[in-house]
Amino acid sequence: MVNDLNYALVTGASSGIGWHISELLAEKGYPVIAVSNRPLQLDDLKKNLEQKYGIQVVTINSDLSKENSAQEIFDYCENHNLTIEVLVNDAGTLIFGEAVNVDLERTKSIINLHVTSPALLCRLFAGEMIKRGIGYILNVSSVSSVMPYPTISLYGPTKAFLRYYTRALRTELKQYGILVTCLIPGATLTELYDPGRFNTRLNRKLGIVQKPWNVANTGVRALFRNRPESIPGFINKIIVFLLPLIPSFVVVFIYKRARPHLFKKPGR
Q1: Count of domains forming the chain
Q2: Which string of b and e fits 111-150 if b means at least 16 CB within 10 Å?
């Protein structure tokens, strides 16, 4: 059982991978600070964890796509004397579409959610972890971090930032005894994926789509075993290795076939 004054803070805790990471940390004895912009689901999580594990759950209703949200969360913890030993940056969103056609506010929101907020939360809480000489940080990236492809031109590159930021942060914080791990899941059966667009049952059988609990368990194990990265699933490990090797002309060819109207010359 860990010290009940040392909390685990999980963003995106109201569903999917974040929900299950919260459960796994509660099982280890950590009181949980659950952060999301979905207060009803946070209440459900709080009741579930407190009844099942007997730990305290503090919920923070915060939209991490807003620029100042990281500072507000840090200030809340400071003002309420909540010591963070484990930080999990899981909050994310998926946007399909050409970058120039995505609404400007949505563009800002995904950059804040995947880049600004997790980087600032790491900066703020890692400083306190260094003072205590102990801490754990788990950042959730994606196999899309190796896919700078059309229609996920916002999602993939912002997840790539998280991956390489985590790698650099791990090296910087190692000397202080802070463990930093990057979780790199592939397609996971969460609300990000529309069952109408993806044959989730078939993809699960093929090992392409994984259950969020399996992904969460793999990530938490990797964190406490001090692994630099964790890629759940054999297929995803292959994807991360092979996708960067695909020549750009192949990507262009596929994109043209999928959207031929975009490549017609004027007057034809």
Answers
A1: 1
A2: bbbbbbbbbbbbebbbebbeeeeebbbbbbbbbbbbbebb
DSSP state of 203: H
Read off the tokens for 119.
């980087």
Measured CA to CA in angstroms, residue 202 lies from 144, 195, 243 at distances of: 21, 11, 22
Range of the domain at 91: 6-263
Distance (Å, rounded) from C-alpha 206 to C-alpha 208?
5
Higher local confidence (pLDDT), 191 or 93:
93
Instruction: Name 33's bridge partners.
Output: 9, 58
Q: Which of 155, 164, 165, 176 is catalytic?
A: 155
Confirm whether 149 is a catalytic residue.
no
Q: What mean pLDDT comes out for the span 91-96? A: 89
Q: How far apart are CA 112 and CA 100, in angstroms?
A: 18
**Residue 105: its pLDDT value, please?**
93
What is the pTM assigned to this prediction? 0.86
**What pLDDT is recorded for position 252?**
65
Element (H, E) at 230: strand 229-230
268 found inside a domain: no
Look up the CATH number of the domain holding residue 231. Answer: 3.40.50.720
* CB half-sphere exposure, 45, CA atoms < 13 A: 33
118/116 Cα distance (integer angstroms): 6
| Structural domain includes residue 117 | yes
> Tokens 């194990």 sit at which residue?
221
Identify the residue whose tokens are 């484990």: 86
What are 200-236's pLDDT values in tens digits? Answer: 454 444 456 889 999 999 999 999 999 999 998 888 8
- Whether 149 is covered by a domain: the verdict is yes
Residue 1 forms part of a structural domain: no
- Could you tell me if 214 and 232 are in contact, meaning their C-beta atoms sit under 8 angstroms apart? yes
Q: In terms of DSSP H, where are the helices of 81-142? A: 104-111, 117-132
